[in-house]
Model the fold of this input.
Amino acid sequence: MLLSQAIYKFKEFLEGEKRASPNTILAYIRDLNDFYAYACSATNINEEKITIEDIDTGIIRGYLFSLFRIKKGSTLSRRVSAIRAFFGFLIKRNFASFNPAFAISPPRYQRGLPRYLSVDEAIFLMENSGGDGIIDKRNHALLELLYGAGLRVSEASMLNLDSLSLNERVVRVFGKGRKERIVPLGRGAVLALEKWLEVRSKLSPDSPALFINRKGGRLGVRSIQNIVKKLSLKAGAGGGISPHALRHSFATHLLDSGAGLREIQELLGHASLRTTQKYTHISISHLWNVYEKTHPLSDGSSKENVQKDENEVRSK
Done:
């Protein structure tokens, strides 16, 4: 089978049976097309003739080595995951008899702790992101929802009007793999959404999308990212705030206030509890920072031991 045909069949599998999100599909296929181009160059075989049988473990290792100095560890890990998933699919469907990616392991790298806001910073950002204009009300509602419900940026983009139930103060969200979850809404998010819905029809009465642009089209992921960045700069919160940072802040503040990891996992839509556990590292660091600054007997050694333990956990 031609390598190009195999990639196309894998894309159909992701869209149909796997029901992966558009962003996941885009990332996988982009990574595989990049590997496809490298494989053609490495084997000196025309892109219209190279087959899956032409790919061996050495080519995959060579591809990863070519990226080692120019890509982050997280990017390399994602590329390995895409290639392994691709060849695993081919084996299961009997399109291939050998899996050249079987012995390939993702590179080990130290994950940085997620960026997040303090409670005071989050409140300040929410209070200073409003306005009287239509777009101001939309942006404020968007910000309140991202922080108040911990949504992924792609989830916020895909919300429709019927996703909301403001009387019950919940939003219905379709996350990764089109998995549905119900997330409660805080009072601030509900009030901001009500103000936005009062004026939303002036932009477009017909669009089903909850968040729309000036022309009535659905707000995309990139637009939402730009809005959050612009609002954070305007409020004096710095330019490093992203929708993902608001999601991390949502989870961290819940944990600091006593919420359990299982409950936070459900609210975030994480498939694995291991993904949620990273917030314990953030909260422990936060507690030790407070301890070091306020306790009269603190000598700094406890914080160093905790940081060492965290690094060991992240390296496993």
